[in-house]
Amino acid sequence: MKPNYSYRTIAALFFLFAFGTHGILLAQSTMAGPLINHLGLSPDLDQMFESHDDKCGPIDEKALAAYRALAAAGEDYKYDQLLGDIELWKENKYVEHVESIGKSVQGRDIWELKITATDRLQVRPRHTITIHARTHPHEIQSWWVCQHIIQFLISDDPLAAALREQCTFYVYPMYNPDGVNLMTTRYNANGVDLEREWDKPAPQVEAAALKRRYSELMNSAEPIEVALNLHSSSDPERYFWYHHESGTSAEFARLEREFIGNVRNWFSRIMPWDYAVSWNGSTPTHFPESWFWFNFGTNVMALTYEDIFAHNQQTPDAYFDSAALALLHGVVDYLNLNSVASVDEGTNSLTNFSLSIINGQNPSLTFRVAEREDVEVRMFDGLGREVRSIFNGSVSSGEQKFALDIGNLSSGMYYLQVRVGSTIVVKQIPVLN
Predict the structure, then answer these.
(1) DSSP string covering 235-274, please?
(2) Three-state SS for 137?
(3) Could you give the CA distance from residue 182 to residue 104 in angstroms, rounded to a whole number?
């Protein structure tokens, strides 16, 4: 049972007198001024008396020292830098809008990027994916992963093009802008952890804004199907928080294992699904994932992803770009987007498409066109780098067949992009050499 507030206050005073102000200063890190929370206690004392562990691990002296070192080295990402990037994103042809969904406690905008295919008429419903980062300000790595996701999605990479054609991404790169500017650990300007506000009748304004926006999207014609909550952990591993079936359902647990497994197929440094198991006793009510589960069940794959806290971007084994691409590949596999990546349903030029490449002695591509067309066939690796230019020219009507040279490729997953006239099809190709 949780102690009541009076007991907690007495205990807090005991710790304050017994250990001095070192713990408070440690928890506040390099904040410009002291913070209070909903109990009127310092953030570290509030955490000290919680009956549960924080999902991102303890805020210890080593983690805070690493945070200060990263900030001192210019590795932090502040609100003014976000405003500068917003001006660049607005100019990108694949960013449909950059809009504020609300204000923080101190009046900063909480920004939303909408990334999708903006250069074509939409001819079918798209899948909706949301990604929010920097809930906990000192977890800079959540932004680094988010940054690579954004950079990839607004690029001309063929996989990015296929994703934009079939999906709409709503990205919230700095959910807690006040905390970032104050250099707090896990708190907003009121000293409250926004991760734990989703069951409150009157949540903090940042949580209220994101919750309201997610509600709008869930009630739209294209509701959210995947919701990723990016963090970084004091653990020296990358992993997802897996929600046990005791707190969800057997079906949702199966879907979680499927999603996490799909991501790990692309980046094995992410730990298996059973590395961090939560909700195995009951279902908490205060997390964003809790809100999705109680309201929408298995319709939304809502998960927290934790990247490694300790690395900086220059460390050779940082791999934040690999983690970002693995998350996107996981979305592709989970939503079964591999077999259909058409970008123009207004043409019937591409009437048949077949592929035989996995175990055959002579892997090949065959398709049929109704009339003479310009055709381009290229192959890309999982990082979007072109590894083969197979054909670029005109073909006559009828069946077309092209040999695929995969002899010198390393084993792994590749993408074949076929452009016929104004139609693009992207196929996933596993290569075993």
Answers:
(1) SSSBEE-EE-TTTS-HHHHHHHHHHHHHHHHH-TTBPPGG
(2) coil
(3) 13
Q: Measured between alpha carbons, how far apart are the two ends of the chain, in Å?
A: 58
CATH number for position 376:
2.60.40.10
DSSP symbols for 9-44 = HHHHHHHHHHHTTHHHHHHHTT-SS----TTSS-HH
Do residues 376 and 415 share a domain? yes
Number of folded domains in the chain? 3
Same domain for 93 and 144, yes or no, is yes
H/E run at residue 419 = strand 412-420
**Residue 294 is part of which domain span?**
72-334
Residue in the block written with tokens 């067309």:
373
Indicate the pTM of the whole model.
0.70
- Does one domain contain both 329 and 411? no
Whether residues 93 and 162 fall in one domain: yes
Q: 322 and 207 in one domain?
A: yes
Do 266 and 414 fall into the same domain? no
Residue 24 structure tokens: 């408070």
In degrees rounded to 5, what are phi and psi of residue 421? Answer: 60, -120
How far apart, in whole angstroms, are the C-alpha atoms of residue 198 and residue 26?
27
- 295-319: per-residue pLDDT in tens? 999 999 999 999 988 677 777 668 8
CA distances from 276 to 89, 91, 194, 233 (A): 35, 40, 21, 11
Give pairs for 89-94: CB < 8 Å, separation 24+. 89/113, 89/150, 89/154, 92/154, 93/118, 93/119, 94/118, 94/119, 94/153, 94/154, 94/160, 94/164
Q: Is the pLDDT of residue 342 over 90?
A: no
Which residue, 428, 424, 421, is CA-closest to 343? 424
DSSP three-state, residue 6:
helix
Same domain as 326, residue 185: yes
Q: Judge whether 87 lies within some domain.
A: yes
* Pair 180, 81 in one domain: yes
Q: Which two tokens stand for residue 243?
A: 């929600």
Q: 129-157 pLDDT, tens per residue?
A: 999 999 999 999 999 999 999 999 999 88
